[in-house]
Amino acid sequence: MANPTEKSTLPENVEDIKDLHITVPVVTTKQLIDTIEINNKEAEAVTRTMETEDMETGRLEVPNTLEEMQNILDEIETDSYKIQIPITKQEDIKNTLEDLKLIFDLGKTPDYLFKLEPLPEPTWNIIP
Questions:
Q1: Domain of life here (predicted)?
Q2: What total number of domains does the chain contain?
Q3: How many CB atoms lie within 10 A of CB 96?
Q4: Cα–chain-centroid distance for residue 49?
Q5: What is the pLDDT of residues 20-42, one digit of tens each?
Q6: Residue 93, domain extent
Q7: Is 51 inside a domain boundary?
């Protein structure tokens, strides 16, 4: 069997096909309505799944200020381990954010978490 494209060959068994997208033209009003209803049902299912996952994670909403976040951390942290905020060192960013993501639903990281020192001047000369 010749396959002049970069695409993989189709499996022999139809049951092995996991993802199938077929584009069919919408010709009648009934087809349009049916298509819209199917898309709406899929969108509602995705929304319900996302809401359920958010409730299951048990993570807290990100506070509006550094002080509010610090108060929450003070309530739940032990004496043996404390998350240091604001982040002041470049090398602490990754670990601190990973720790905060376990507690808070961090989508976009708030700017107030960072109080970083300026990066050092480069030791190389890019433009001669």
A1: Eukaryota
A2: 2
A3: 18
A4: 15
A5: 777 778 888 888 888 888 878 87
A6: 66-113
A7: yes
